[in-house]
Structure formats: structure tokens, C-alpha cells
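Students often ask what a holo structure prediction actually looks like on paper. The answer is less mysterious than it sounds. You provide the chain, you provide the ligand, and the output is a string of C-alpha cells encoding the 3D arrangement of the protein together with fe (ii) ion.
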Amino acid sequence: MDTLHPTTESKPQVSDFTQEIETYKRDGVVVIKNVLSPAEVKACRDAYHNDLRKYGVNYNNLKSPSTHEALKKLQIHGSGGIPFYFCQWQLQYCHTNARYVEAQKALFAATWASGTEQHFQNPFAPFSATKIFSITDSCSFRLPSNVQDFQQTVGLHVDINPWDRYSGRRASKRWRPVQGFVSLTSNVGGFQCIPGFHKKFDAYFDQVEKPENHKQAFYAFKHSMHDGLHKQVVPVEYEAGDAVIWDWRLPHRTEETHPGDDTREVVYSTFVADIPLNKEYILEQRKSFVGGKYPPDVFNWWERGAAPGWKRESIKMLSPLGRQLLGFDD
Ligand SMILES: [Fe+2]
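The corresponding C-alpha cells follow.
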């Protein structure tokens, strides 16, 4: 089979992300506009819907009880998260998207890479930001609230252990100081966070008592002591085809109810620096990809068998950039 180069690679490359870097440094969250064209969004969504259909989820009949039952079975923790990780369309349009990759490299170079930038010090620096790796994360498929009541919002949280951000089930496997997704729909407010909290994170948690045996790389702001934080949450505005990147110290959540008549669809897709810990993870992730298994940062991944939506042909269809990002080539 011929190598399929992602269409995004043929786009003129914008190497100047000055504005985005400034925004990320200030707010800890930034929207990278137009990583996908409208035609690419459509192609990606069509392919996503096609794969969902194989599991009984029919985009063309969102109100159907059989779609609801199929979605309940497929989704992760009742939240509308879909356990697709290695689908060909995810890889092509999101996990190996050239513009998204360039933006992420520019952000790393201006922040985490030196180890001396204020608010972005870390134990892995200095490192080069000229090469990064792709973390193949899951997707979201949230139905409009007016057709279902079984998909729960993901409440305000951070995906790190506030008292030891480098430990925990996922954190010990790879270092991912930025999180992100490519949005396939224009649902303003679907993602919400507290801008600027990356600069306040340490001081805030100095005052919070560590719960006993807190070893998870996750913390939910459920206790009433955090009520003040909930008032600081704002919706992030983005359109279909944009990517959203946020700092791992920002409390974030999904919308309480999903208005309108269309689904909310995003592909969670992020990149990590080329450091030994991440390189090791990427080689494990490559094994999962080749074997059609869940990625290694999914809980009990080794017991879960085949990853939904996986096809062996996807490996042969990777672009040269995609092969590097996923650890097949240097
Ligand atoms: Fe999260």
C-alpha cells in the first residue's frame, strides 16, 4: 500500500507562533487556529462516524435508543469519552498533524525546554524542542443534552498529583506538561478552565492538606474548600478545526450540559518532549499500536485486549513525520 501523506503536511507552514506563545505563557491555555481546513474536518468526522457505526453508534440517528445503548457500552466512565486511539483518521488528521506539531514545538522551545523560564522550570530540562513525540489519546462524542441524560460532565480537575506531579500511574510513565485536543465541532464552552492558574498552582496547593494516600496523577476539586475556584472557570472559545492546548496545572472540566442539536467531538491529542522517559513510553506505545492494544497509559491496558477502531493498515499509511512522531523512525 502507498504511503499516505497527511493532507495537512502540504499546507504552507506558519513558523511564527509568537502570539500563541505569549498567550500560553500568560494564560496557560491557547487556541491554535485552523490546524484542519473545513474539508479536512468533514473528512475526519465522516471517518469517525463510520468507525462509531461499527460499534452501533449511529450519528445520523442520535435519538435512537439503540445508539444510546451502544454508546453506553463503548464510552469511557460514562463521560462521552470514546476509546479510539489508533484509528487511521485520528493519526492522519490529529496525532500527526504538521501544523499542530509545529505549534507544539514552538511552545516547548519558548517555555519548558530551557529549564530556566519563569513558571516552566522542570527536572528534565534542558532538552531540544526540535523533535517531539505524539501521545495517542482518546476521543470525545458528547450527545446534545436535549437527547440524553446518561453522559456525565467531567468535573473540575487536574490530571496530575498536586503534591508530586511526577508520580502517579500515568505520570510515572511519561512527562506531559501540556494537554490538548483537536476539535471537530464548534461548540463554544465545551472545554472550560481557569486561565493563569499555572502561575498560582504551587502557592494554592501549599495551603491544601494532602488527602491520605493520594497517589493518583489526578485531583478533583470536589471539596467545598475549592468553591472559590469554581467561580473562576471560564469557557474557552474555539471552532471546528482548531486545536486547544493547556498547561497541566490548569484546573479544567467539560461543560455541564451540552446545548444545541449537534454532538461535541474532539480528538485528544498531545505531544511530549524527546527525553529518555518519554522515548521509553513511545516505544511501549508503538508496541501497543503494532499489536492493536490499548496505549500503555490506559488503566489496566494489558488486560483490555484489542483497541477499538484499530487496523493494521494504519501503520503502513503513516507519513514520514508520523513515523518519527510515533517512534518508528528517528
Ligand atoms: Fe483532564
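The longest helix spans residues 38-53.
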